[in-house]
Design a protein that fits this description.
GO terms for molecular function: DNA-binding transcription factor activity; transcription cis-regulatory region binding. This is HTH tetR-type domain-containing protein. Keywords: DNA-binding. There is one protein chain. This protein has 244 residues and is mostly helical. The protein has a domain of 146 residues: Orthogonal Bundle (Tetracycline Repressor, domain 2). The chain contains nine helices and no strands. The N terminus is likely disordered.
């Protein structure tokens, strides 16, 4: 996820839009994420072609676009190169997309929609207890960002390539995501379980730490994903739990 600036918070920049995670620039090109599953029904732009061949081609275009944009940037990726990566003619791309801009927006929209929907499902499964819900949010955030490094990188650093209406929609979704964590922290504070000076700033700090896992995680590292999730959950909670 990327960040947003809340005009009501003078001098406060959300950790998700500000390219606060400058370490991404140092290590992101070395990411080796697992391919993300295609999300159905989340895109309003990319055309869906009836039949299995059309669906497979559309999915292949998205995966190739993720790979190329991550490797060389959106501006440097050209549609002829994208078509060659999929094994179709450049003209055939337009059976599955309208413009290069629409393709980028489609990728970001699928990413943010999946993040929001899966987070909501994790919170629903956690039940009503505030700490259980906060743990569910933290665990899902870390695991999602471990599994979708390319999508996260593109969402962080290609937002500037979107036109204003598309960027506004993605930024709005990011605000919605941040608001979920802020609400969880406020719920925990109201229940007497957490001790926070400012829920919004605490949420931004927590998101910066949790998202930073993308910069160093490797599939062949010494810790499993679940061990990394457990470690980050403990670190995040220790910073906000009420003592005594």
């Amino acid at each position: 996820m990327t960040a947003t600036i809340d005009p009501s918070q003078a001098g406060v920049v959300s950790p998700l839009l500000n390219e606060h995670m400058f370490v991404y620039r140092l290590t992101a090109r070395g990411f080796a994420p697992q391919p993300a599953p295609r999300q159905e029904g989340t895109s309003s732009i990319m055309a869906r072609i009836t039949g299995s061949n059309g669906e497979r081609t559309a999915a292949a275009i998205r995966q190739a676009a993720l790979r190329l944009i991550h490797a060389q940037g959106f501006a440097a990726m050209n549609l002829r190169e994208l078509a060659a990566a999929v094994g179709i003619s450049p003209a055939s791309l337009y059976n599955h997309m309208t413009t290069k801009q629409s393709l980028l927006f489609d990728l970001m929209l699928e990413h943010m929609t999946a993040l929001l929907e899966q987070t909501d499902a994790a919170l629903a499964a956690a039940g009503p207890e505030p700490l259980a819900r906060l743990e569910a949010f933290i665990g899902h955030h870390v695991l999602y960002h471990l599994e979708r490094k390319r999508e996260v990188y593109i969402a962080n650093f290609e937002l500037r390539a979107l036109d204003q209406p598309n960027a506004a929609r993605i930024i709005g979704m990011r605000h919605d995501y941040e608001a979920r964590l802020i609400a969880l922290l406020e719920e925990g504070t109201a229940a007497g379980l957490l001790s926070l000076g400012d829920a919004r700033i605490s949420a931004y700090a927590m998101l910066a730490m949790l998202t930073g896992v993308c910069t160093w995680y490797r599939v062949d590292g010494r810790l499993t994903r679940q061990e990394i999730v457990a470690l980050h959950t403990r670190l995040a909670l220790e910073g906000v739990l009420r003592r005594g």
